[in-house]
Design brief:
single chain, about 725 residues, alpha/beta, Arc Repressor Mutant, subunit A, Rossmann fold, seven-stranded parallel beta sheet, 29 strands
Length: about 725
């Protein structure tokens, strides 16, 4: 009788032994379904040997079935093991990402399509009328119609419920046309052509080769790495292109289709379950050649991967905070290494860790120092708010108001950047000083005036703004403190009542379809002023956008974040790069109370190298990343006393080790999150120390009770 070791997606269990029935054929890497208690779970045959030989054959349960997909390649299984080991995560939790929680294992070959029924006897809302007009005589799925009309799937389902759309039959699942590498080859500049030649050669060598494509905003990095993608297509290999935000996906798909004549396969959280199943099977069988996705696409089972591209590689959103706390940029490099393929990290503002890898000779670097097509970098200037303050109750300085007025007069577009959602970050009572705080988190409630709610941005708790203060019962005493984008938009409406304005945040652009509509409106000059958060700092190309105003450049420098200066420099550099990307010159105005801060001076002078050299020197002196290592241990419980007691017991059990220091426990900066009280210990080690082995041995000697959660974050980016 044959026995095999199977890893399931249950993260509480390790690898389990199962019996293989005689009628089932499988190999190492095969995706299987196995019984576990009263349930059936997906898993993967990890080894062709048993892990517990002392258990009698008769006591083993049998594998139920083998999923009709290719086995996971050794490179992917090795990546799962490495990610689990490096980030101290349960192997099953990592495997769950590779199997997409099992959603792609069911083979669904058809899709229901609909068409307009012609029945419009019932009253139509403006949104439904718009959707029907866009749909016309076409046939399509619910999701296809929603994307076509720029509405939510709920609107389309309402049309079906009201018999305005009727079922037109079931059709075979849509398989994308194969992109054509020669479809619309661009005309590259001399610099771009030289860079593209290097990338094509890398792809042809079919070996691990990490490369930093470092080009200023507007230099045409995308067109350059598209040539590497074209080379991979010609060789019959799959390509994975990672984007940091789902919001970037839809505009990018259009740009990709214009170059290659067909859309790539998109993988992100906005897909319906049916679309995810279909996409997963296309990826796993190799029928999808180009995949564009968010960080979760990194673990999918590509049978023939030939190239990985990480766009906007500096973005901190590549670090996952929930579940397995991995950094997609770093794991992507490891996947390329295990697959023996090249990887391109494309960015205008490389992370210090990436720059250090270049200086050590581990990564190759290509620099694109000029904007494409003769466009020039925007003029950047600072407004000292101590000398040129806004009017009382306002947030836009007079000099920026004047610049906006001139931009509108020329028929050009303006972007006002403030990385703060909502109307105001704090609401308090002017009578007694009461501040509205989330009952579940150590965070202020943010006022969202557009939806008339106070909201916690950490747990999502919502409440209507009360008329009276809950502390002193004084009515009409509540005051909004500080600006968010909604408040800036209100000010813009007062200053420029005839200007067409849009708020661009994750609240207003919550789906790829809404982002696509926003991009289309900007490209069609239907918008004069955009008020946005970091969502609009990356990837977009608006030829008529010539003025960028940074409302509060000091915001990102507040707090004790290790990467605060670096992040602020990257963010403001990226948003500044939205201005003047075509033939019209651009201008950037940065509002600040600290014009002499190193970040502001570097932005004004354009001397990025000096800024990064100063940052690296400071990090080296403190043995901070990339010269040292951090790991955070977060202890949490519903009972504050229990969390603190266990954290202190954990601290008392700290093993002695050379070149390792442990700080804490102390209340985490976010001392309560979603009802859990949190205490943090911070481990600081030299770069050469195996901090994972140290943590593993330490935590093994301190098992936590069921009511206590212990979470380890290796290489933390968010110190909350």
């Amino acid at each position: 009788m044959r026995r095999v070791a199977v890893m399931t997606i249950n993260q509480r269990l390790g690898i389990l032994d199962y019996r293989v029935p005689d009628e089932i054929e499988l190999s190492v890497g095969s995706i299987v379904t196995v019984p576990l208690g009263s349930r059936t779970l997906p898993g993967v045959v990890w080894e062709d040997s048993c892990t517990a030989p002392s258990i009698a054959d008769a006591k083993l349960r049998s594998i139920e079935s083998v999923v009709g997909l290719p086995p996971l390649k050794p490179a992917l299984r090795k990546l799962i093991e490495w990610t689990s080991d490096y980030y101290l995560a349960a192997p099953g939790a990592v495997l769950r990402m590779a199997l997409a929680s099992g959603v792609g294992l069911e083979d669904t070959r058809t899709m229901t399509q609909y068409r307009a029924s012609g029945d419009i006897s019932q009253p139509l809302t403006p949104t439904r009328a718009k959707a029907l007009e866009k749909i016309g005589s076409a046939s399509g799925s619910v999701k296809q119609f929603a994307d076509m009309a720029g509405v939510s799937t709920g609107v389309i389902r309402a049309l079906i419920t009201n018999n305005m759309l009727e079922r037109s039959g079931d059709v075979a699942k849509y398989h994308p046309h194969q992109p054509d590498p020669a479809f619309c080859a661009p005309t590259l500049s001399t610099e771009q052509e030289a860079a593209a030649d290097t990338l094509r050669a890398m792809v042809g060598e079919e070996a691990f080769a990490p490369l930093l494509l470092n080009g200023i905003t507007g230099s045409g990095k995308t067109e350059v790495y598209f040539e590497a993608i074209a080379a991979a297509l010609r060789s019959g290999r799959q390509v994975l292109l990672l984007l940091p935000e789902i919001a970037l996906t839809q505009p990018f798909l259009a740009r990709f289709e214009a170059r290659f004549g067909a859309p790539p396969l998109a993988w992100h959280s906005d897909l319906t379950p049916a679309e995810r199943r279909n996409a997963y099977r296309q990826i796993a069988t190799g029928s999808a050649s180009i995949i564009i996705g968010a960080r979760s696409a990194l673990f999918l089972p590509y049978p023939n991967l030939g190239l990985i591209v990480v766009d906007e590689a500096h973005e901190t959103s590549f670090k996952q905070d929930e579940g397995v706390p991995y950094h997609a940029r770093d794991v992507a490099v490891m996947r390329a290494r295990f697959e023996s393929i090249p990887i391109i990290l494309a960015t205008a503002t490389p992370a210090l860790e990436t720059r250090q890898q270049v200086s050590l000779g581990h990564y190759r670097e290509i620099i694109l120092p000029s904007r494409y097509g003769g466009a020039i970098l925007p003029q950047i200037e600072a407004v000292d708010l101590t000398r040129d303050p806004p009017d009382r109750g306002r947030w836009i300085a007079p000099s920026l108001v004047k610049a906006i007025d001139a931009t509108l007069a020329r028929g050009e577009q303006t972007l006002l950047f403030l990385n703060r959602r909502g109307f105001a970050p704090l609401t308090l009572c002017r009578t007694c000083g009461h501040r509205f705080q989330c009952p579940n988190c150590t965070a202020w409630m943010v006022e969202h005036r557009l939806i008339h709610r106070l909201q916690c941005h950490h747990c999502g708790y919502l409440m209507p703004p009360p008329r009276a203060c809950p502390e002193c019962a004084d009515e009409d005493s509540l005051v909004a403190c500080g600006p968010g984008v909604e408040r800036i938009a209100e000010e813009v409406a007062l200053l420029f009542p005839d200007a067409r304005r849009v708020i661009a945040t994750s609240d207003t652009l919550s789906s790829p379809a809404k982002v696509a509509a926003f991009v289309s409106a900007m490209a069609g000059n239907e918008i004069d002023i955009v008020i946005g958060t970091q969502l609009v700092t990356k990837g977009y190309h608006f030829p008529n956008l010539t003025l960028v105003g940074v409302i509060d450049a000091d915001l990102g420098l507040q707090g004790g974040d290790l990467r605060a200066s670096e992040r602020s420099f990257q963010q403001i550099s990226q948003v500044a790069g939205r201005a003047g990307r075509a033939s019209k010159p651009g201008r950037v105005i940065i509002q600040t109370y600290e014009p002499d801060a190193p970040v502001i001076k570097a932005l004004l002078s354009g001397d990025a190298e000096r800024f990064y050299a100063t940052e690296l020197s400071a990090r080296m002196g403190a043995e901070a990343p990339p010269f040292g290592r951090y790991a955070a241990i977060i202890v949490s419980a519903h009972d504050r006393g229990a969390a603190e007691a266990f954290a202190r017991n954990l601290a008392r059990a700290t093993p002695k080790a050379e070149y390792i220091h442990v700080y804490g426990p102390a209340p985490a900066p976010m001392a309560m999150l979603r009802g859990w009280h949190r205490f943090r210990l911070l481990v600081h080690a030299k770069r050469s120390v195996n901090v994972q082995a140290y943590l593993r041995a330490w935590l093994a000697n301190c098992p936590n009770p069921r009511e206590i959660r212990v979470r380890v974050d290796v290489d933390p980016y968010n110190f909350n």
